[in-house]
Request: fold
Amino acid sequence: MASVQRAARRAAARLAPARNLRTSAALARPADQGATALSEHDPEMHSLLNQEAQRQRSGLELIASENFTSRAVMEVLGSCLTNKYSEGLPGARYYGGNAVIDQIERLCQSRALEAYRLDPAEWGVNVQPYSGSPANFAVYTALLNPHDRIMGLNLPSGGHLTHGYYTSLKNGTTKSISATSTFFESLPYNVNADTGLIDYDELASLASVFKPKLLICGASAYPRDYEYKIFRQIADDCGAFLHCDMAHTSGLIAAELMDDPFEHCDVVTSTTHKTLRGPRSGIIFAKKELMNAIDFAVFPSLQGGPHNHQIAGVATQLKEVCGPDFKAYAKQVVANAAVLADTLTERGHTLATGGTSNHLVLWDLRPHGLTGSKMEMLADRVGITVNKNTIVGDKNALSPGAIRIGTAALTSRGFKEDDFVRVADYLCTTLELAKSIQAEVGKPLKNFRPALNDNAEVAALKAEVEAFAQSYPMPGLAIQQPAS
Ligand SMILES: Cc1ncc(COP(=O)(O)O)c(C=O)c1O
Reply:
């Protein structure tokens, strides 16, 4: 019996090399598949990607939080950097093979400090947050204990969810909407109902009683600049940290077109894909003495491996931001927003705060008896992308009375002031069409939606808008260039 087993083992050993060859040939096939183009590998996804590219190119993109990043950034995003794990910080990683990744992250850090003219002896930066919301939560995790108090601009006043949003229920209780208000005690401050401007007096008086440990400034739908000196005074009066979330305006601040939050704040966070025009990511700047806590909150407290392709994309974009042309771009964004605001006002419309000093306007549709939802829906059908937005005084948060319109993305396609007069005209035409459809079918949204189908006026406006949009170049990949 033993001799039979020995013979079987000898035979198996003789066969092993041939079997190994077969195994490696089989393994080579999946490796080949890794080199197949998307169009062949996944035609369904390839088609969806092309459809989205076509939508972006043929429409008027007016979402205030969006932009079109460059081909250089896109190249970095679709690179081998997505393959690498690098938990930890440059020079102190939990994985091997990070010599190049360390250089990339350090380059991103130094360009980030340069973009905001920061002294590395005074400020540190963490470029690993996956996006704006995780960046904010990392700040709270670093600086606060559970149930510490925070104050941020209320969502219906233009603030962001992550600044502590909760709703009040009819039975007098509240419901946390953002995790920020689940883990911390939040008291929002508001804009003044008449002016639309932040009510600094109300904020000061609320803060003197509530005594937050963290005061947040910055917003998602606020068309004006911030009084950082007043924020600092209020924070100092209650011993609070001052945090600016400059997500929307970080490109304009880098270009020195808006006041500098770094002069007054302890921590500054941002997304990198709005007016900064980079890839989707997040970034945290903090005074040097807070940096250890911030770094620890990002990793290991909240995140795992950094998204190195995103960090490299941010670094590449920051090269542009630090270079000579970005300021001209940012100036054009602001000039275009001013023209948009002036044109809408001249045509008799109402804007929150009466206009804008940055890249966005908040258009109050309530005087027209129209909701933001209907305007957004019809605009979408005619190739104009905007979003419904709450505005101070809205009775029902589910039925916002405004739309938010931003100029950063179309400015990246080369739109100038005259072009934005035409954009304003298209928006006015869309509004009039929405009003006439509503007059025909009545107020319920369920009647409005089907009335847009097979509507000749909708189709004609869409054709006009698309022809206009398609005549402009599109930054990014070659696939997105206008058809010749
Ligand atoms: C002011 C502000 N902060 C944070 C965020 C969140 O960014 P993200 O969507 O990348 O998480 C946004 C997003 O629009 C924002 O407007």
Q: What stands out?
A: The radius of gyration is 26 Å. The chain is about 45% helix and 10% strand. The longest strand covers residues 282-287. The pocket of pyridoxal-5'-phosphate is lined by residues 65, 131-133, 136, 160, 162, 218-220, 245, 247-248, 271 (CB under 6 Å).
